[in-house]
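User: Show me a protein chain along with its predicted structure.
Assistant: Here is one chain, sequence first, then structure tokens.
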Amino acid sequence: MAEKKTALITGAGQGIGFSIAQALGDAGHRVVLLDLNPDTVADAAARLRSEGLDAVGYVADTTDRDQIRTAMNAEARIDTVVTAAGVYWDRALPDLTEDDFRKMMEVNLIGTFIAVQEGLSRMGPGGRVVTISSRGALGGTRFAHYSASKAAVIGLTRSLAMETRGTGITINSVAPGFTDTPMTRSAPTEMFEAWSKLEPSGRAADPSEIASAVVWLASDGAAFVTGQTLFVDGGKSLGGLGI
């Protein structure tokens, strides 16, 4: 019987990250949940164990390499890394500062890089990396700093995939569109509903729909796919004018 693979997911305490951990656990992986909030990650891991999944949680700041190393070193193997940790806040152009860019890049880009680099050093052929970028990488109003950070994640994903070609390790990205998460639900109800109506289907994505794409990219069936960004946004990124 083949040894169970281990998947490490950053930002896994809630939202998209938690759904990814749950889906990978259902697919047969041991799942390692990382999150900055001790209570959140402990509760999330306990919930997955109550569902019969092999899950453990660690408190870790993705921008702190030592904390990421400690979590990874506690595991016998790392086969898959998914970087779901990220931050977002609105900032209109006149109010946008250099500090907004620094903070956004520190978490969304550098945090992703650290987790991926540490994971790659522990992987062999068959290893999988899935970064979580965003449809926001295509641009938008009131979040130039966020858009820049997620576009950078896509560029990072492509570059690292080029460097690992021929190793049997794949590196891809999933770019979610507007998704129903605790973060988006923190907006006023009327705002959330207005955003939902702007989607082609008239609704936000469920986190499980993002997770399904990640599970496929982490599977053996996606072994010939690397350096790609899969937009999971109900077609919103296609643009165009409706008729």
